[in-house]
Amino acid sequence: MPSIRCQAAILMVWLISVARAEPEFLGQGSLPGNMRDLSKLKGKDAQGIPHDRLGGMGSAIDYTGKDNTYILASDRGPGDGASDYRCRVHRMEITVKPGAGQPVSIRLLSTTLLSGPGGAPLTGSKKPGPARFDPEGIRMGRGGTFFISDEYGPAIAEFSPRGEWIRKLAVPANYLPEIISESPMGELPPANNRGRQPNRGMEGLAISADGKTLFGIMQSPLIQDGALDAAGKRVGRLCRMVAIGIGTGAAREYAYRLDNPSHGVNEILAAGPDSFLVIERDGLAGKEAKAKKIHWATIRGASEITRMAALPERKASAEIAPMPKRVLIDLLDPRYGLAGASFPEKIEGLAFGPDLPDGRKLLLVTADNDFVAEAPFRVFAFAVSALDLAFAKP
User: Fold this and answer.
1) Whole domain around residue 83: which residue ranges?
2) On the CB side of 201, how many CA atoms lie within 13 Å of its CA?
3) pTM for the complete prediction?
């Protein structure tokens, strides 16, 4: 007969196996792609798109901590930086009622325009200058302020509740390109031999539970980290994540390894003192989509790479251990019923909401519709338990 200690261990394993449930898809909600926001802007841009179109806000979302209210940031605007789109954030009420006829309902509450240093409007224009800004990640700070990661920089800026510029937090110098250009080709080698790739900057932003540390993650490897081969093809897999002390400015870095060089990281969300949820995806939509996953990843056991000017090409060496990771949610898994012709390309936002009545965590996943009138803004709601996060599947 097994000893009492052995019996206790067997019971614990059994309890864990019973208590753990896979993340549950609760439903989805949407808003029309041609909807207007509450900015009160008039007129249209050069492409004929209204200046007050409500779009692109699936790029970044965070829970305000109050009721069912969230803050969302629109990215740089229509046409990938082709217009002087005014950067802005929105507050939305997103209510999730599992089992209801409409499980996820969305209501726009307000729109706030962002200003830069000195009060100048921030715009998504790709033309070099102090006013260009590409919001990709957003996290609530203390006292109602919020932080946004700028893909152009890359940079992290803090704003007042009214959208006023407060300050910029310093990002390690090796993240910054040597030459800034309006043309993506003008920011690639041989023009630049270090820093972020164009349109592959700081896509994800997380904040620690104590509000003291920000975590910014790059969409793709830095140029000096073996990002590209001689023909300009993406071959690198190690994306840098920087942790920055909000009060101290002190920085430390870790590496996240992509499953495939063609993938990119699009969001990061703190899921514990040293663990995160990370969106890793391909650039395909509809039936062509192959990889749309939310990984659980941790800095436990990962090498600190703070003082490494360049990382090894293509794969980690014996001296570098990337962040261990496991799949938490595969959005294309048939069990969720989401895959198909209408599945969006740009899954880019993650936020925990208020806990569900049964104690599980509400996880919202958002899609960036790129300001396309025919493409709705979509929010996918999942329930995840503490055990889901602790025992994410390989």
Assistant:
1) 27-390
2) 27
3) 0.93
